[in-house]
Amino acid sequence: SAPLDELAKLMGYPGKLGMDGSAVWQAWCGGRIAEIRDYCETDVVNTYLVYLRFQRMRGHLDAAAWAQEVQAVRDALARIGAPHWEQFLAAWPAD
């Protein structure tokens, strides 16, 4: 059982950027709700990307379908334009 951060980074995804679960309570107490939201959002995308890679390894996605889905994620994040997504994309080299 490996942590999401380690799995994501092993697969070439950004993993956790700046905050991890151990820092959430202190951030909450400090009123840093936006930082917690950004952390949770990037965790969801890391989880989805790991899931896509797993589906690719299982043979449920061929190379073209996997690449199309990964590109759709990149494009969607780029359209949002929020700083945490810009940081996420910068930390995620093209496959």
Measure the end-to-end span.
25 Å
Rounded to an integer, what's the Rg over CA atoms?
14 Å
Range of strand content: under 5%
Q: How many DSSP helices?
A: 5
Shape: globular
Order of helices and strands: HHHHH
Spans where pLDDT lies below 50 across 5 or more residues: none
Counting DSSP E segments of at least 2 residues, the number of strands comes to 0
* Average pLDDT score: 94
Q: Could you estimate the helical fraction of the residues in percent?
A: 55-70%
- Largest sheet report: none
Coarse structural class: mainly alpha
Task: Tell me what the structure shows.
It is a single chain. Helix content is 68%, strand content 0%. It has 95 residues and is mostly helical. The protein is globular and about 45 Å long.
In a few lines, what is going on in this structure?
This protein has helices at residues 4-10, 24-29, 33-58, 63-80, 83-90. The protein is mainly alpha-helical and 95 residues long. The longest helix is centred in the middle third of the chain and has 26 residues, at 33-58.
